[in-house]
Amino acid sequence: MTKRSDESAIWTILGYLLSGLLFWGGVGYFADRFFNTSYLTLVGILMGMGGGLYLVWLRFGR
């Protein structure tokens, strides 16, 4: 890989991880507020990170 494609891959990986974290963490946060619980934010964050890692694995790992 060239330096430019390495840099592009790093930004893509970071984008996958952050978008999963923010989206599913936000869903968990609003579900916590709706159901008056305190654990769904953590569940959403973990699901988002897991989903982001899975997307990274699909794109770069196989």
Q: Overview of this structure, please?
A:
The chain crosses the membrane at residues 9-31, 37-57. Keywords: Membrane, Transmembrane, Transmembrane helix. This protein has 62 residues and is mostly helical. The chain has one domain (10-61). It contains 2 helices and no strands. The protein has helices at residues 3-35, 40-61.
Topology:
Layout lengths: L2 H33 L4 H22 L1
Helix pairs in contact: 1-2
| Low-confidence blocks of residues | none
Strand content: under 5%
Number of helix segments? 2
Biggest sheet, open or closed, and with what strands and sense?
none
Transmembrane segments: 9-31, 37-57
Keywords: Membrane, Transmembrane, Transmembrane helix
Q: What is the structure about, briefly put?
A:
With 62 residues, the chain is an all-alpha fold.
Notable traits:
single chain; 62 residues; mainly alpha; 2 helices; 89% helix
